[in-house]
Write a structure and sequence with these properties.
Elements: H1 9-12, E1 67-79, E2 83-95, E3 100-104, H2 111-119, E4 126-132, E5 135-136, H3 139-145, E6 146-149, H4 161-172, H5 179-192, H6 208-220, E7 226-229, H7 238-253, E8 257-262, H8 267-272, E9 275-280, E10 283-289, H9 293-299, H10 310-319, H11 324-333, H12 352-358, H13 361-366, H14 378-395, H15 397-417, H16 428-466, H17 472-501, H18 508-535, H19 538-554, H20 571-575, H21 577-590, H22 610-617, H23 624-652
Parallel strand pairs: 3-8, 3-9, 6-7, 7-8
Antiparallel strand pairs: 1-2, 1-4, 4-5, 9-10
The chain binds adenosine-5'-triphosphate (ATP).
Adenosine-5'-triphosphate (ATP) binds next to strand 1, strand 2 and helix 2.
Length: 654
């Protein structure tokens, strides 16, 4: 029987071969490592790993790491008048290699915050130090060996599992690997994570557990040594929970350090973790092996009642259900995470000095990362991101299909409402209204679509960018390029419909001018939407977008002519891009020495001579190129500003 995934080689270029894993190249920055026959790697303990009970062929290339964190504090500012709040109170801890570590604690204890700090995601308001193998953490090196999987699965819902994996492999694996070698890596991961059969299922259609496993699969592609997972079991049924945790256990026992936050695990789930780190109100209550927890509680004089899940009991203690004194007792007993007495063989745990001796600097030199922050070049990132963007655009019901439909429908509606208004001298004011309505359409729909959809993209961008899939520059150029064809087609379709139905002058030059102004307006509005979407949430953006557009309309010269604007408000007409749009439209329709208009529908046509109308609205028909230049400056300035806002926002959330 052929598996579903095997049929999508052409569609996604994922190659599935039964070739020898040993063929996998090792060139490039960090290709996955397959153990050669008889290699010392085979001696490493590999636990039984559901769902396949084998574990990945891909084991970490680097030696396991020992992480030590000391006196970690984290303070957040609550606002100008509310002061600040300390979330973590100088906690210490040790994350031993090949261990699956659970960070547990009641809601609000600071678990996610600690994970954010340990993964390097949170940097603002953080104090203390993190050591890797006995030396201070160097963030660039640490990010190369770690990944962070946040709680909300940030996946490309429009792409299938296979496509998601293929694109991630193209971004995260060396370009020296060919598609067969990358295919082997993908096949190995998906098979072991029980996702191979769902190769052709779109991300949005996966179940919660499958989405979680896909999130892990995507990060496993470049074979990280340390994985941080925020609440990987939240929202899953007990079977999916234990599948995910068993998978994490297998990955840990292959030589990785895996740290997860968990809420309140069942006894069986709890037993799957090697180590547990319990937090309460930002202080450490216990740190040690899972099985030593009961004796720790016994020694502390707070024994776990018989038939009680120790995980539940320590959470109850940490919540303060048995009194604040118990919390203080545990924090003192664990020395806020400094004590290692409840680790297995704690006497043999190497000191910082011992770790440095085990891993001398000369050894580190050999593994020194070279090149940029990402695995592949900017050109490759751009190429892959554009491919991904076009795949998504083809399937995107909102950003592509709905947008095109709206252009057709609104075009027909406006065309019918202002039918034949373009040539008629008695309907010049109507035609002027039509031109303004067209501007409104070109302003509102791209701006609102961007404001509504970008925040979701932003969360995926934040995850992928933090995990070094690509640079912000490559991402930004790719979204700009990918959207251009849709904007051009939508605008062209709309322009043809409305231009012909309203009987504007049938002159190719005038039409091109009309189309150019339309497209520029769309691009400016979209960039404006991007600026808002990059910084604000959907709710705030939906309020701010139209609100900030009102002054643009007022200063466009439509209601109050540019001549009648009070001197102290004249600046407004220079910063309103709609003014240049309206002036450009006027230039296209009534400029170029347009002859006298027809006067078939009335006895008297006040605006029979276009000059009369132009004088009245105080607009020059000869400013077309100036308007184009002004709109170009708007596009470039807003795009650049949106880029820096995006960059700022990505850093600010950390
Ligand atoms: N940026 C912030 N501003 C204000 N308070 C914050 C901020 N981030 C976290 N907190 C507060 O810090 C505390 C710890 O938050 P954190 O998300 O780390 O808890 P948690 O243990 O992961 O909780 P849960 O299990 O419910 O997710 C909470 O009281 C939370 O409200």
């Amino acid at each position: 029987m052929m598996l579903a995934g095997a049929q999508i080689v052409d569609e996604t270029s994922v190659a599935f071969t039964t070739g020898n894993p040993g063929n996998t190249g090792t060139a490039g920055n960090s290709p996955p490592t397959y153990p050669a026959q008889g290699s010392s790697r085979e001696a490493q303990p590999v636990a039984a790993a559901p769902p396949t009970e084998q574990g990945l062929h891909m084991i970490p290339k680097l030696d396991p790491v020992d992480i030590h964190f000391s006196n970690i504090t984290c303070t957040v500012k609550l606002g100008i008048t509310k002061g600040s709040k300390q979330i973590l109170h100088g906690v210490h801890g040790r994350l031993r290699p090949r261990q699956l570590v659970a960070i547990m604690g009641p809601s609000g204890a600071g678990k996610s915050t600690l994970l954010d700090v340990l993964s390097g995601y949170r940097i603002t308001g953080v104090g203390g130090a993190v050591f890797v193998n006995g030396r201070g953490r160097i963030m660039k090196r640490f990010k190369r060996m770690s990944c962070y999987i946040q709680q909300d699965d940030r996946l490309q819902g429009l792409l299938t599992v296979g496509e998601n994996m293929k694109l991630a492999a193209d971004l995260k694996l060396s370009t020296n690997l060919d598609k067969y070698e990358k295919g082997e890596v993908i096949e190995d991961i998906l098979t072991n994570l029980g996702l191979y059969e769902h190769m052709n299922t779109r991300g949005a259609q996966l179940s919660g557990g499958q989405r979680k496993r896909l999130s892990i699969a995507l990060e496993l592609i470049n074979n990280p040594l340390i994985m941080f997972l925020d609440e990987p079991t939240t929202g899953l049924d007990s079977s999916s929970c234990s599948q995910v945790v068993q998978l994490c256990q297998t990955l840990a026992h292959q030589g990785r350090t895996i740290v997860c936050t968990v809420h309140q695990p069942s006894a069986s789930l709890f037993a799957l973790f090697d180590h547990v780190y319990v937090l309460a109100a930002g202080r450490c209550m216990y740190q040690g092996t899972t099985k030593n927890l009961v004796s720790y509680l016994d020694q502390g004089g707070i024994p776990c009642p018989l038939y009680h899940n120790p995980a539940d009991y320590i959470i109850e203690l940490s919540c303060g259900e048995y009194g604040q004194d118990k919390i203080d007792l545990m924090a003192n007993k664990s020395e806020n995470g400094r004590a290692l007495d409840w680790f297995d063989d704690f006497e043999t745990i190497p000191t910082m000095e011992g770790l440095r001796k085990l891993m001398p600097l000369s050894v580190l030199r050999e593994t020194e990362p070279t090149g940029g922050d990402e695995e592949t070049s900017q050109t490759n990132q751009l190429k892959v991101l554009m491919r991904r963007g076009f795949m998504k655009a083809r399937r995107d019901a909102t950003m592509t299909h709905l947008r095109l439909i709206v252009n057709v429908v609104v075009g027909i509606m406006l065309g019918s409402l202002f039918i034949n208004a373009g040539n008629e001298g008695s309907r010049v004011l109507e035609n002027y209204n039509l031109l303004f309505a067209i501007l409104m359409h070109h302003m509102m729909s791209p701006m609102m679509l961007t404001i509504l959809t970008f925040p979701n993209e932003m969360s995926i961008l934040s995850k992928e960018h933090f995990n070094r899939w690509y640079s912000l520059g490559s991402y930004y150029i790719s979204i700009t390029v990918v959207d251009l064809p849709v904007s051009i087609v939508g605008c062209a379709v709309f322009s043809v419909i409305v231009y012909t139905m309203s009987s504007q002058p049938l002159d190719i030059v005038r039409f091109c001018m009309f189309f150019a102004i339309s497209l520029y307006t769309v691009l400016v509005a979209q960039s404006f939407g991007l600026m808002i979407g990059a910084v604000f949430s959907v709710v705030n953006g939906t309020f701010l977008g139209p609100t900030l557009s009102v002054p643009m309309m007022m200063f466009a010269g439509f209601g109050v002519t540019l001549r009648d604007l009070p001197g102290y408000l004249r600046w407004g007409s220079y910063v309103s891009y709609l003014r240049y749009g309206l002036e450009g439209f006027i230039g296209a329709i009534y400029g170029l020495d347009r002859p006298i208009l027809d006067c078939n529908e009335a006895l008297y046509c006040h605006y029979k001579h276009p000059r009369t109308f132009l004088n009245e609205v105080a607009m020059s028909p000869d400013e077309f190129w100036f308007d184009v230049m002004a709109l170009s400056i708007f596009v470039v300035t807003l795009r650049i500003t949106a880029f820096f806002l995006l960059k700022w926002k990505l850093d600010a959330v950390r």
